[in-house]
Amino acid sequence: RTTMKSLRFLSAEAFVSNAEFARKSLNTVAHNLFPLLFKASYLLEQGEMIHDLVENWPLVDFNVGKLLGPTVDYHEDLSHRTCSVCLESCLTGLRDYVLNHSSPYMKRLKVVDLTGIKDVEVQFCECKKTMGRWARTQLLSKICLELLVYLQQAQCNPGTSEISVDVLIDLFVTERNYELVVHALLKKCYCPLKICCVAFRSDSLTLQKFFYIIKLTNPSLLRKLEIVHNVRLEMEHLEILFNSIHFPLLMSLTLPARTFNVQRFTATDEQMLTNIGEKMGEMTQLTELCMSFSILTGRIQKLLSPLKTPLKMLDVSNCSLNHADMAYLANSFHANYLESLDLSGHDIPELYPSTFFKLLSHSSAVLRSLTLEDCNIQDTHVNMLILGLSPCQKLHEFKFVGNPLSSQALKHLFTFLCELPVLKNVEFPVPRDCYPIGITYPIDDANLCRYDHQKYESIAEELNLILLQANREDVKASTPLFGSYDAAVQETNNELGAYLIKSFKETLEKFTTSLNELKL
């Protein structure tokens, strides 16, 4: 599909294609053409041109998401192109905007917004090199510290120190870039570029370091907080976090696995859970909550009932929910507002079929994403599932990997899925009949790939043919055996793996020490 370009955009492309001429002519270009030239330069990956446009930016704001998003002149959305050449040119151009010797009175820029950049799996830029969220965090922090060095060495105009530009960014901090980011945040008040953290993701960090850096981010401005994987945050630490720091604008909260474990609850723990629920209730903007891989049996109501704003996104996958939990969700005011729901890892047909379908019915008018992985959905449940999904006319995404469904049942389900008008993404399981007879579900990692690949490819082709014959080429169907693509994990997987090995080694050493002590 080719997106039409206006004559203005075609002219802008022609202008920036001759980079040497265009760069020399920038001072004669009307200010209102800079956004047009920026998008054309980004599309053509003209790094030097992008740098010079940003260095001489004449407008009050520089919002990357809006600049690259659909415009009248070119409707294509380029905000998902995290091209390393283009983004590095943006950030170095921003640095040189500050250092540029033009009069400070000509510099109008007040706000730079980098939060609209979308990290996706498939990149269309020619260089094929991406700059993810972690790398953007790293480079911006480095540039801010470089600017301070320039200022201290008096290598720029005296008026440079009067420049103040707020740079809105989604920070991603791990052990590897922690010191650099902390240094940049500590020096923020002295730097012309002010890092303003809108969203914060931490991974592979000790609790001490997490608590230290989260206070430096100015939590009163945070809209999204993700504490994931290798941050060993447990319930008592979460209570301390909420008691010591206020998050008045927080809209989205992701907690690491095993934050909660009701199996070993004491009376003190029950009170702690109540306090956490009350603190979340004070977050009046909170509409997205992810608490996967915690054990929350019978405690969902205690956690969620204090919330004053209905949740739009809820991830309670692998949380060992019981019937009381599902009944609360189905009857709560959240049900009518849920746009994204993940109930993976629960035996829905066995434990609470009617309650689940009641929840689905209440959320059907707004539900856009539904994930039911490893939920023991079998062939005999498909007709009921179709009945439950039929009212979900706004469903964009349906993921149900890991369920014991035959190829015949999948064909039946796909025929129905064609009828959902805005469906765009389906993640389906390897059919049960591709695995050896007697395979048990959920399938462990060791056996996950031991299926008849040729037979799977043949069935996958048949399923795609069903979509094709229904004129639904717009639907992407896939089987990601090891989970959906996660840009943040992909970018830092080497560090994540090293951290896991280190943790495993430490555990083994402790175990060995304990054994030796017993022998003594």
UniProtKB/TrEMBL annotation:
Superkingdom of this protein's organism: Eukaryota
Keyword ATP-binding: no
Cellular component terms per the entry's GO annotation: cytoplasm
SUPFAM superfamilies to which the protein is assigned, alphabetical: RNI-like
Keywords: Leucine-rich repeat, Repeat
Ribonucleoprotein recorded as keyword: no
Family: Belongs to the PRAME family. LRRC14 subfamily.
PANTHER family, A to Z: LEUCINE-RICH REPEAT-CONTAINING PROTEIN 14B, SIMILAR TO PREFERENTIALLY EXPRESSED ANTIGEN IN MELANOMA-LIKE 3
Protein name: Leucine-rich repeat-containing protein 14B
Species in which this protein is naturally found: Formicarius rufipectus
Gene name of the encoded protein: Lrrc14b
